[in-house]
């Protein structure tokens, strides 16, 4: 086993970068260009192979907006359930349709596939372009299916901070708390992608910023597959995941092919 990946316990899949929102804080930018969609069957097979060798604690799907393609999300989480992964999570903005019948249908499919934890991205940034009514309808539908759901806000500084975005986020979260849906701590944004373009007044751009959510390259605990199949410098549409893991090194030029 590659010593740099020996502590792996979490697998993440970006289903698509396509999104129903256009958020000022989004680290992915404007989601421009043609959509690339993760192959659900290939993702499920890769997950099965990883789960044979590692004690996975969680599998997460997100985007973009993953529920634009619930069939891919459900295929991945059904495999996670089959492999005995305890936490089967989705991050979603909750807005993939306005149709109440489709919302209920997707909620039922998520429950059947084994999803047991939904993190709902609601805050001042999302709600600039995403209506709350269908999001709340979705939240009620998944609760009715017995799926745990919590809000997952993004903050400029944090709860209680004195700026218009964080004050608006507190107001939005209160509406969900009144529905019985509690809030996670959420994430504090950093200047990358749209946040650097639209929210620069809130950051000292003269200092060096690092993504606080990046993995330690010498002790990988979570791997993330993008919609094109890329992970750890390899691509699962072109190479076996076992080979990608064996060849991974945090030191470029020192892998097996280099002879070092």
Show the helix and strand layout.
Elements: E1 10-16, H1 40-53, E2 58-63, H2 70-82, E3 87-92, H3 100-113, E4 117-120, H4 132-144, E5 148-151, E6 154-155, H5 164-177, E7 187-188, H6 194-198, E8 222-225, E9 230-231, E10 234-235, H7 241-247
Parallel strand pairs: 1-2, 1-8, 2-3, 3-4, 4-5, 6-7
Antiparallel strand pairs: 9-10
Helix percent band: 25-40%
The order of strands across the largest sheet is: 5-4-3-2-1-8
The averaged pLDDT comes out at: 92
Instruction: Give the uncertain stretches in residue-range form.
Output: 256-260
Fraction in beta strands: 15-25%
Separation of the first and last Cα atoms: 18 Å
In short:
With 260 residues, this protein is α/β, with parallel strands linked by helices. The protein has helices at 40-53, 70-82, 100-113, 132-144, 164-177, 194-198, 241-247, and strands at residues 10-16, 58-63, 87-92, 117-120, 148-151, 154-155, 187-188, 222-225, 230-231, 234-235. Helices cover 31% and strands 15% of the residues.
Outline the structure in words.
The chain has helices at residues 40-53, 70-82, 100-113, 132-144, 164-177, 194-198, 241-247; strands at residues 10-16, 58-63, 87-92, 117-120, 148-151, 154-155, 187-188, 222-225, 230-231, 234-235. With 260 residues, the protein is an alpha/beta fold. The strands form three sheets. A six-stranded parallel sheet has the order 5-4-3-2-1-8, covered by helices on one side. Strands 6-7 form a two-stranded parallel sheet. Helix 3 (100-113) crosses helix 4. The protein is globular and about 50 Å long.
């Amino acid at each position: 086993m590659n010593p740099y990946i020996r502590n792996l316990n979490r697998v993440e899949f970006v289903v698509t970068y396509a999104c129903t929102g256009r958020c000022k804080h989004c680290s992915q930018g404007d989601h421009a260009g043609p959509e690339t969609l993760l192959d659900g069957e290939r993702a499920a097979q890769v997950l099965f192979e990883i789960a044979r060798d590692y004690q996975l604690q969680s599998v997460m799907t997100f985007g973009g907006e993953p529920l634009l393609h619930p069939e891919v999300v459900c295929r991945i989480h059904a495999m996670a359930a089959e492999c005995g992964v305890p936490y089967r999570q989705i991050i979603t903005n909750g807005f993939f349709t306005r149709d109440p019948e489709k919302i209920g249908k997707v909620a039922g499919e998520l429950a059947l596939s084994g999803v047991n934890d939904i993190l709902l991205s609601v805050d001042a940034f999302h709600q600039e372009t995403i209506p709350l009514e269908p999001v709340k309808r979705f939240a009620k539908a998944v609760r009715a299916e017995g799926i745990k759901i919590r809000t997952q806000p993004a903050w400029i500084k944090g709860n209680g901070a004195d700026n218009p975005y964080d004050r608006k986020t507190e107001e939005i979260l209160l509406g969900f708390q009144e529905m019985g849906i509690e809030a996670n701590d959420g994430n504090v944004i950093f200047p990358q992608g749209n946040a650097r373009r639209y929210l620069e007044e809130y950051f000292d751009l003269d200092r060096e910023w690092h993504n606080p959510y990046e993995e330690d390259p010498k002790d990988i605990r979570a791997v993330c597959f993008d919609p094109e199949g890329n992970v750890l410098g390899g691509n699962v549409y072109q190479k076996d995941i076992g080979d990608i893991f064996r060849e991974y090194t945090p030191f470029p030029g020192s892998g097996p092919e280099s002879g070092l």
